[in-house]
Amino acid sequence: MISKINLTVLFYDPFWIGVFEVIENDEYKVCKVTFGPEPREEETYELILHKFYSFNFSAPISSDKDPLIEKKNKIQKDYKERFKKKLLQKE
């Protein structure tokens, strides 16, 4: 069994949140964690070590494709399109 875990920490006014994404056995699950103030690296590490298995993840979604790779590709495509638009506006 291979598991992929991704944590994205972002500011969602007025709190810092973490979004855990897990892919195992071709199933995709997510969980949101609210930090409050900006978490330090040590705090996120402790959270993963001591509380990860008590998180309430979403119901698993079957997936043939890796949603983390799809999300990354979509972000890259959007960025390239915005960059091209800015270049065209300068000319």
How would you portray this structure in words?
The protein is built from 2 helices and 4 strands, in the order βββαβα. It starts with a strand and ends with a helix. 2% of the residues are buried.
Question: In what range is the share of β-strand residues?
Answer: 35-45%
What oligomeric assembly is this protein in?
single chain
Number of helices: 2
The side-by-side strand order for the widest beta sheet comes to 1-2-3-4
Largest sheet: 4 strands, antiparallel
N-to-C order of helices and strands: EEEHEH
- Report the span from N to C terminus: 52 Å
Give the structure's gist in a few sentences.
With 91 residues, the chain is α+β, with helices and mostly antiparallel strands. The protein has two helices and four strands.
Key features of this structure:
single chain, 91 residues, alpha+beta, four-stranded antiparallel sheet, flat
Describe the protein's topology.
Elements: E1 3-12, E2 15-24, E3 27-36, H1 41-51, E4 61-62, H2 67-90
Antiparallel strand pairs: 1-2, 2-3, 3-4
